[in-house]
Predict the structure.
Amino acid sequence: MVALAGGVLFAAAAPEVEISNGLVRATIALPDAGGGFYRGTRFDWSGVITSLESKGHTYFGRWFKAHDPALRDVEFRADLDGFAAGTPSAATGPVEEFSNAIGFAEAPAGGTFVKIGVGRLRKPDDAKYAWSTRYEIVDPGTWSVRPRRDAVEFEQTVGTASGYGYRYRKTVRLSEGRAELVLEHSLRNTGRQVIETPVYSHNFLVIDGQPSGPDFAITVPFEIQEAADKLGILKARGREVAFLREPDKDERAMVPVVGFATDPKDYDIRIENRRTGAGVRITSDRPLARMVVWAIRPTRCPEAFIDVRVEPGREFTWRITYEFYTQPK
């Protein structure tokens, strides 16, 4: 790994930057259409965290063996810890996705649509949009990156072809004197059409390399409507999503988390590991629109959605905070 001016690091040709505040240290992959760590068409290219450590515990990092930055996100197969070589997700850390393909429905086959945080993509045919499809990137937009000792500022501008355009800003910041990571976002609509989409963080938590299972607990401040996945791995009840057992290497589980109010105070999620004592609290200044918990053996993912709607010429902002802590074992 070679260090360059401005704190940018290059590992396996992928540009990265390391930030620290003395209590948290994180490595962040930088957007790069030619050599970036993540170049898929599902997730936002900014703020992909390839590692994060705090107080002797790890929270984000690689949870897959093989890595291809441009291929589709997840393909399961039992001979490689549940993932087929060359096709697992290349996304790590609290990577985010703007779920709607903006302008996809009205675009003709061969036309373009917008995926925020990725750019302008080609619609190949009349098939429905599928997040697992690798679409041609026509224009990744214009990216600028401003690294500091304890933060990285990203900005992407995408032009207004077909009436859709935006300026998207994200700052990944470590709070001074606190074991805390803050993601600050703003989305300005520079086009002629309304931009409307859910956005969520996949989270891909890999706390201390521990496998998903009964040592983990995910809690919220509201009473959850009881639910369970079909494999008997996850159970939502009371104010907790519990693991009833460890998933096998090719098993995946998902349960909805229903019962929250339209108040940002319910966007308050804790993930704790009883074996190592590591915990993280995730909060936001925007209310939940939807929440699910998705899990496989190497990672567990509380996916908390918020709704974004931006009129032409207006701006929408939101913030997500990760507080890292240690609990008594």
The mean pLDDT is 89. DSSP finds no helices and 27 strands in the chain. The CA atoms of residues 248 and 297 lie 7 Å apart. The longest strand covers residues 315-326.
